[in-house]
Amino acid sequence: MIQSSVCLPRNTRLPFKKVPGSHQALRAICSLKYESSMPIRVEVPERRAVLLGTLAVCGVAVVPSSEAGVLDGTVEWWKARKRANSAKLIAPIKVAQQRLEAASTMLADGSGSMLEVLQLVRSSSLNCYLFDALPSDTLETRASLLTQSSKLTDPCTFRIIIKNVVDFASTDDKERGAQLLNNLILSYQKLDSELEAAALESGVATDRATAGKAAQQLAATLQLAYDVEGFVKELLLVA
Q: What GO cellular-component annotations does this UniProt entry give (predicted)?
């Protein structure tokens, strides 16, 4: 505390500022019977005490628990909506798996040319990587390639699905989904290169010798497609 001593005449008016604690000091002075020569000790509150009092008044209010639960309720409502539409999210993944399975069968029994296998694999990628168009590609395939190259929109269905399911997910789940998607796209690109090279070597007939590596890469890509489905179901809490 800051202390000072002054001598005041009997009828002197004291110009006190209205600060916390000053009225107690003034009351003490007025109750004294003193002579003009009597020293008067006036105690002025420290700045720290005033600051602490101000902070106490301006403290943060406690948010009611009813309001704190609004966000949780919104998140749960969103997750319930996603679970209700889970079949629509999983359907494109199932289509990709079926096309990869058909391509794998064609490689195994030689029922189709390497070029046909390549086209089937590309259609299963759901527009998630760029490749050079073949003369036999449809207008839809060419339009999709044009959209990807322009980068105006992202037509990758796998990416769209994963983005949908990781909303409000933990950081770890978001990173896991991004890594899974990246692995799948890289696997598709590698498979495409091997199938294209095999198709150029063997023409329209399936060459079993050159198809061995492509078959292994196709199996790895198919497994990643299964993993994507499992990831989506895990986050949506569906069987």
A: chloroplast
Tally of domains within the chain: 2
Same domain, 33 and 112: no
- Hey, what long-range contacts does 98-107 have (CB within 8 A, 24 or more apart)? 98/124, 99/123, 99/124, 100/124, 100/218, 100/221, 100/222, 100/225, 101/222, 103/218, 104/215, 104/218, 104/219, 104/222, 106/206, 107/206, 107/211, 107/214, 107/215, 107/218
Distance CA 163, CA 18 (A): 60
Residue 23: which domain range?
Answer: 2-54
Mind listing the pLDDT tens digit for each residue in 134-146?
Answer: 777 777 777 777 7
Whether pTM exceeds 0.70: no
13, 28, 54 - which closes a domain: 54
Residue 230 φ/ψ, nearest 5 degrees: -65, -40
What's the pLDDT tens digit per position in 50-92? 444 544 444 434 445 455 455 566 767 777 777 788 899 999 9
Structure confidence at residue 76 (pLDDT): 76
Residue 215 CA, chain-centre distance (Å), reads 35
Q: Which residues of the chain have pLDDT under 50?
A: 1-8, 16, 19, 22, 25-26, 28-30, 32-37, 40, 42, 44, 47-48, 50-52, 54-63, 65, 68, 204
Query: What sign does the dihedral 86-88-93-97 (CA atoms) show?
Result: positive
